[in-house]
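>> Question from a student workshop board

For tomorrow's exercise we were told to take the sequence and the ligand below, predict the bound structure, and bring the output to class. My setup keeps failing. Could a helper post the expected result so I can at least see what it should look like? The ligand is adenosine-5'-diphosphate.
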Amino acid sequence: MLYVNHVTKKYGKTVAVNDVSFGLEPGSLTVLLGPNGAGKSTIIKSIIGFLKYDGEITVNEFPNKTSEARKILGYIPELPSLYPTLTVIEHMEFIARAYKMTNYKDRIEMLLERFEMADKKKKFGDELSKGMQQKLNLCVGLLPDPDILLMDEPLLGLDPHAIKELKNYIEEMRQAGKTLLISTHIIDSVDMLWDKTIIMQDGQVKANVSRSEIEGQGKTLEELFFEVTEGLEPSSVKAPAEEASDADSKGESDK
Ligand code: ADP
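>> Workshop helper replied:
Here is what the output should look like for this input. Compare the format with yours to find the bug.
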């Protein structure tokens, strides 16, 4: 189980994440929704251990920056950071060795096949189109097969085949008991079998609800999103306790 407890992250005077708390359950897919600048990438980078922040993040009871936690955590960044002078296959082998994987060849083949990169194995990072870079970024992130995988806008820049394949793959990981978090600002892209949604705005968690709760209220995700982020109709949606006093005063400043 992953817990984020009262995490605050400031960049200078900008409060990017403001006292955020939530948990991620094993075998579940959580969608982290929010407009641009809501703090989604910042909380993901905090969880993965890239940033300093105030508060506490634990992974199976280990602090997130310990080696025990790092073995469990995986991350697919929004923007690929590839090595221009390594080929596609060299990227994959480099990651396999960095994670001390054994018998990784079949897994590499499987991922490159599924994401239609098998015929690009000998291409260098800087010879790849943007979309191909995005697919290699995905293959590299999926290769170590972590128990907890955080994906920052993973569908952006992918072609329709890769989008379909990634959605299938995500469902397979969910069925296999992995803990998954996908951040996005595009609600329409969330048509896979998600279990929970966390809606962030202005660095805060504005709603944290299960799919069955939303469906039980007869709402779509889109309706919930606008209700929460634009204050349309008073919501009966469960908001975190610390957000309650803030509920009346939000929404005017971001237009
Ligand atoms: P999201 O992923 O939801 O679009 P971010 O986490 O990227 O949001 O950004 C949250 C806030 O933090 C924004 O106001 C953004 O401008 C600011 N921010 C993000 N990264 C940096 C940075 N490296 N330096 C300064 N401000 C940043």
